[in-house]
Amino acid sequence: LVKITINGQEMQVPETITILEAANRANIRIPTLCHLDLHDLKLVNKTASCRVCTVELKGRNSLVPACVTQVDEGMIIRTDSHRAINARRIAVELLLSNHPNECFTCPKNLECELQALAKELGVREIKWHGEKMHYDKDLSSDAIVKDPNKCIMCRRCETMCNEIQTCGILSAMGRGFKAIVGPAFNIPMKDSSCTYCGQCVAVCPTAALTEVNHTDKVWEALSDPDKHVVVQVAPAIRVAIGELFGMEPGTIVTGKLATALKNMGFDAVFDTDFAADLTIMEEASELIHRIEHGGKLPILTSCCPAWVKFIEHQFPELLDVPSTCKSPHIMLGVIAKTYYAEKIGIDPDKIVVVSVMPCIAKKAEAARPELTKDYHNNVDIVVTTREFAAMLKEAGIDFKNLPDSDFDNPLGESTGASVIFGTTGGVIEAAVRTAYEWMTGEELKDVELHQLRGMEGIREGTVKIKEMDIKIGIAHGLGNARKLLEDIRDGKSHYHAIEIMACPGGCIGGGGQPYHHGNEEIVRKRQQAIYNEDRNKALRKSHENPEILKLYKEYLGEPYGEKAHDLLHTHYEA
Ligand code: HC0
Ligand code: SF4
Q: How many CB atoms lie within 10 A of CB 66?
């Protein structure tokens, strides 16, 4: 331990910590910008490039960045001296001198960390006027917009992409004023191996990285009298969107969502959860089929499109490992344009399917050629949680005070098994609930498989089904996925089934969710809410969903049968 003094307050702290950590312990706020410390992920971005955390060391007559300066015996620190405050303000003013003054029209308006700091530090004018960066926006992809003019070189995206996701897409290039972050040789994002996981977007403090905005496409469809516009909401939306309307993280707003969507004028308000139950019917069948017929094991869940893109780019030799199931929202799109279209007697070409997703990669997934060539474009438009909340605000909907209502049928009924899709571990837990009962013919009494739950990056569990020990692996975050995939490639994997989600936490931590600005507690509260919503459901196993059973009886035939294959399964390409 060393003795230090911060703002006159004496304290003893371990010598290994930084001034910033010491100040946190003393409840003294030092503003930061480039710094990012995500404990659950063991991610620390320590570039010290922004200098916004500058503090003054008395007696040494120096200004230092608090985020990278370790404490020292006898250190006397002032975070509140005129000199320190002024230095921080200058750091922000310098950043602003080379930043587009576009706050009014910026997608990050009122969510931008640089903007918030300018206010917090009392910046009232931009003092320096010189040359500014002028780069074209990268609009090449269906999912992510990169605007280098708004990049402040904090490198958070780079740390996230390289260290946590191990994708290596984003890195700094150029020197000094010309330095920017982008894919190697600054090629367009769409030509890189980007998975569109959106985790770089989730940690970008400004609008250098944002999602492609598709809200106008939705408004256009809604205003077209010739279109029958169907909407679906993903499991993870209902536990997160409330945050954007001032509600506590972890508030469940399923009923309000259904009401809001009806008020907006959608012709049918469906639930991706219905299709998650459908996915389990197919995926559990596929698992059992592979086990019983000596098929490829382990089977990998395939509902996360960023993860699918990751395996296609990084492990092309393993493309026979993932389940062939389309992801739930794509399945819902297909069923809407076939079964539902027939049921209500409408030309499928007139149906527009909109998915509200916590995910940026779902935008690119919906545009994949093999998923758009049949069934009239399975899913037409994808908007993120953030985009959808913005639409509700544009429409003047008082979301917080809406009454509850139910989703429409036939594609609105769901079980607890489908709700837990929204968190890491949930898809495989849902699959086990069904596979167990199908394989044993017995009731699974305790449906909560706590051994599979939690936030550890890689988890495993064993479930006894008949005489077999079914070994299950779970990974979230692509770096963790990579470890499990390397084991499969090297013949060292002992699992029967593996669930992978690209985003830390699963969909609750998706790249399209409300920004949590580094507060991981928020993601944990969303996870708790997911498990609570499962507990609130009368039915908690996918194969008990009466509307799903009806769909097979009236239309699909057998799970994993010919028609199901045709409509609900896909293939992967390197
Ligand atoms: Fe997910 Fe999904 S659970 S990927 O995590 O499987 O985005 O929420 O909608 O499609 O259902 C995201 C969330 C979904 C899909 C479902 C799956
Ligand atoms: Fe990297 Fe994911 Fe961002 Fe693509 S979307 S650059 S893979 S973090």
A: 27
